From TrEMBL:
It is found in: Cytoplasm. It comes from Desulfurococcus amylolyticus DSM 16532. The gene is gap. Homotetramer. The active site is at C140. Its EC number is 1.2.1.59. This is Glyceraldehyde-3-phosphate dehydrogenase. Its main location: cytoplasm. Residues 3-140 form the Glyceraldehyde 3-phosphate dehydrogenase NAD(P) binding domain. D-glyceraldehyde 3-phosphate binds at S139, C140, N141, H194, G195. It catalyses: D-glyceraldehyde 3-phosphate + phosphate + NADP(+) = (2R)-3-phospho-glyceroyl phosphate + NADPH + H(+); D-glyceraldehyde 3-phosphate + phosphate + NAD(+) = (2R)-3-phospho-glyceroyl phosphate + NADH + H(+). GO terms for cellular component: cytoplasm. Keywords: Cytoplasm, Glycolysis, NAD, NADP, Oxidoreductase.
């Protein structure tokens, strides 16, 4: 019997969670909670997605020509698992409603860590999420940092880390945010919230982070410096990251991909759903090793990076699978994680004039 899933909120993250639930035969989408009768509500109904609305707003939807499938409380009652993808800070209010229904919930990174029993990132603490009632998937930048740092910890041990984060100003749909012509310290002090947040998942991690916001909507970019417990070679590190499909290793010199805009164009041209890049986009020419010290730049597609982890965590919360690697394999093959790597490798060989067969 598939697990019945409700998604509360259908913005940047919620609509992508819906996509991934619809792809997965282990899950059945009961429906989506929608609060405004806008074009997104029309689109969902066109796609056959059941839309549930607040009781006191049902009239607005019906007057706009949108026939809801029911009220939101029914949606929560029907579900075995609820994804909260509400605007950051609203989840804590929603939690009181979820508690009445007694259903397990996946919260997002815009909520305070206290909202859930644990904060989560698959490569760091999958097993801690098994049979938990409330789990918070950390935010996009923190997810990108933790994927890398937890793998490095497992392989080499991490002494300390620094993350300098160049944040996108807004998501592409957000026409009400900025800055449009400035580089904003975010916050105007060190650390930024990212390092602190990373430690809610990996308390062993000695990390400092700093962040600025720049006028772009496509991706975040992170500069990471890590001091490892033992010396490494660049090829070894790339081989390790390559084994985990959630890293897209980009050879800028050979492919010409040296910016977030070219990365996003690659994903669109390759036919990725919504043009998404679920992987950490590691620019391999920036991977520099000095004995135990490693430096690199990685691009993080904020709209989609947390979607694999949101899918993985359902298997833990519901106790469906105890082996994180089997879960990762399943999620990655459903979403096509790793597929761009092959494309990039192929084009590299073409450029070198090699036969890639
Ligand atoms: N955007 C990003 O880059 C990332 C965001 N996150 C986190 O994910 C969460 C969602 O962010 P994002 O998708 O960007 O937000 P959006 O603003 O894009 O979407 C929010 C959605 O929540 C709905 N909503 C409004 N009120 C409520 C409510 N009371 N309860 C439930 N849903 C409600 C809105 O519905 P309606 O349209 O009908 O008003 C809308 O669909 C936040 O915690 C955020 O920090 C994490 C990683 C990356
Ligand atoms: O989780 C995100 O960023 P973060 O990891 O920098 O906190 C998302 O990009 C949301 O950021 P926003 O709070 O600027 O909308």
């Amino acid at each position: 019997m598939p697990v019945k899933v409700a998604v509360n909120g259908s913005g940047t993250i919620g609509k992508r969670i819906v996509d991934s639930v619809l792809l997965n035969k282990d899950f059945k989408l009961v429906g989506v909670a929608k609060y405004k009768p806008d074009y997104q509500a029309y689109l969902m109904i066109e796609k056959g997605i059941p839309v549930f609305v607040p009781r006191d707003r049902a009239g607005e939807f019906i007057n706009s020509g949108i026939e809801p499938s029911g009220y939101i409380d029914y949606l929560f009652e029907e579900a075995d698992l609820i994804y909260d993808a509400s605007p950051g800070g609203k989840g804590v209010l929603n939690k009181k409603i979820y508690e009445k229904h007694g259903k397990p919930v996946v919260f997002q990174g815009g909520e305070d860590p206290e909202i859930a029993e644990i904060s989560y990132s698959t490569f760091c603490n999958y097993s801690d999420a098994i049979n938990k009632k409330n789990v918070r998937v950390v935010s996009c930048n923190t997810t990108g940092m933790l994927r890398l740092l937890c793998i490095l910890e497992k392989e080499y041990g991490v002494k300390k880390a620094l993350a300098v984060i160049i944040r996108r100003a807004a998501d592409p749909k957000e026409d009400n945010r900025g800055p449009v012509n400035s580089i904003l310290l975010d916050p105007p002090e060190i650390p930024s919230h990212h390092g602190v947040d990373a430690r809610t998942v990996a308390p062993w991690l000695n990390i400092t982070s700093a962040a600025v916001v720049v006028p772009t909507t496509l991706m975040h970019m992170q500069f990471i410096e890590v001091e490892l417990k033992s010396p490494v070679k660049k090829d070894e590190v790339l081989e390790v990251l390559g084994r985990y499909r959630r890293f897209l290793l980009i050879d800028s010199a050979r492919t010409g991909i040296d910016s977030t805009s070219k990365l996003m164009e690659l994903a669109r041209d390759a036919g990725r759903m919504r043009g998404d890049i679920y992987e950490n986009s590691v620019f391999i020419d920036t991977v520099k090793i000095e004995d135990t010290r490693l430096y690199l730049f990685q691009g993080i597609h904020q709209e989609s990076i947390v979607i694999p982890e949101n899918m993985d965590v359902a298997y833990a919360i519901l106790g469906l699978e105890h082996d994180q690697y089997r879960v990762v394999e399943k999620t990655d093959s459903l979403l096509g994680v790793g597929s761009l790597e092959k494309l990039i490798k192929t084009s590299r060989h073409r450029l070198k004039g090699e036969n890639h067969e």
